[in-house]
Design brief:
single chain, 359 residues, alpha/beta, 6-stranded parallel β-sheet, 12 strands, 41% helix
């Protein structure tokens, strides 16, 4: 039975743990189930990420990126630690290579979010990992094509929702969901590969009396087009225009969460979907291969094709015409989070995987 696990990611798990557990201002699913593992009696070391440690900084002058330096630092200083869980491939691939050639003694389990390339070094790194867990079916299938030898060590894990964290944000301060006589309130947020122009075009002709949209974006994702019923709040380059707490307060006042995205062969928009499940709001989201949840089948919203203004407009109009349906979709989203996306179930699955590979 394993007793200890070191936990790393591309950002600080120490800070995330403090925010989730002590400050309680961040949902625990951003700890990727490791808080649940800790509560089961395992000693989990929540480590800082590349930005906080800035290890082997002199290598940066040679053009070696922070993720490679971070893995080299781990190998040089921590390589005898027994069990390592890496929640991102960017901080694991070099360690996988070192494990493959017998230099890294730590047993290594990696969470993979996106498809990986087919380079021979990538294939060797994948084969060096003791176990592979996947955020979605798309990434798992892509890795299976690149390195079919890893199939027996591959496990679909998915994600979960920290429902307790979101509980207060589900209330609408006494306001009913999407009431007749007032505009449908839509909130959309994101700083990567967001297609806010499609959303603006979809609502432009619907008028201020029917729909009001709030968009929170980075400089890179700011929509080029504007409409009288759309408010845009922009942050800096790759920056958040408002805090996460402020965004949740906007979701609390919303009827609908929108996730318009550009077409991509990687996971985009999943955090917004998990927020939608957590706060219990209807959702309209662009189809993305990394999002496994069929919102329409769940009764929680709609999935629309990339760049399809007409599909967006049709879905929004249907919800404007049926306020009761908006509330029912939000209730279905919350119910799915509470019953199917629980931290206890997720930690249990992760525990079974660790028990298979860790010692």
């Amino acid at each position: 039975m394993y007793r200890t696990v070191d936990f790393i990611n591309s950002y600080s798990m120490r800070i995330a743990h403090e925010r989730c557990v002590r400050l309680k201002d961040y949902p625990a699913h951003h700890l990727w189930g490791m808080n649940g593992i800790s509560e089961r009696g395992c000693e989990v070391a929540f480590h800082d990420g590349p930005d906080e440690l800035q290890p082997l900084a002199w290598m940066g002058r040679l053009g070696i990126n922070k993720y490679v330096r971070y893995q080299l630092w781990w190998f040089l200083t921590q390589r005898r630690r027994p069990n390592l869980f890496a929640a991102a491939w960017s901080v694991a691939w070099l360690l996988g290579l070192l494990r493959r050639v017998g230099l890294l003694r730590s047993r290594l389990v990696v969470l993979i979010h996106h498809p990986v390339d087919g380079h021979w070094l990538t294939r060797a790194a994948l084969r060096g990992c003791d176990g592979l867990v996947f955020l979605n079916r798309h990434a798992m299938a892509a890795v299976g094509r690149v390195a079919p030898q890893t199939a027996a060590r591959s496990h679909l894990l998915g994600w979960f929702v920290d429902a307790a964290f979101y509980r207060d944000f589900r209330a609408r301060d006494g306001q009913p969901a999407a009431a007749p006589g007032r505009p449908l309130r839509i909130v959309a947020a994101g700083k990567e590969l967001r297609d806010f122009d499609t959303l603006v075009e979809a609502v432009r002709e619907l008028g201020t009396g029917s729909v009001h949209v709030e968009i929170y974006c980075s400089a890179e994702t700011e929509p080029r087009t504007r409409a009288p019923n759309v408010t845009v709040v922009r942050g800096g380059s790759h920056g958040n225009p408002i805090s996460y707490a402020e965004l949740l307060s906007r979701y609390r006042q919303a009827d609908l969460i929108a996730g318009p995205m550009h077409e991509a062969d990687r996971t985009v928009g999943l955090t917004s979907v998990m927020d939608g499940f957590g706060v219990g709001r209807a959702m309209i989201v662009t189809r993305n291969p990394g999002i496994d949840y069929d919102l329409q089948a769940l009764g929680a919203g709609f999935i629309v094709p990339p760049g399809d203004v007409g599909a967006w407009r049709e879905c929004i109009v249907r919800l404007c015409e049926s306020p009761a349906r908006v509330g029912a979709m939000g209730d279905a989203a919350a119910r799915f989070a509470d019953t199917e996306l629980t931290e206890a179930d997720y930690a249990g699955r992760l525990d079974e995987i660790f028990a298979r590979y860790f010692r």
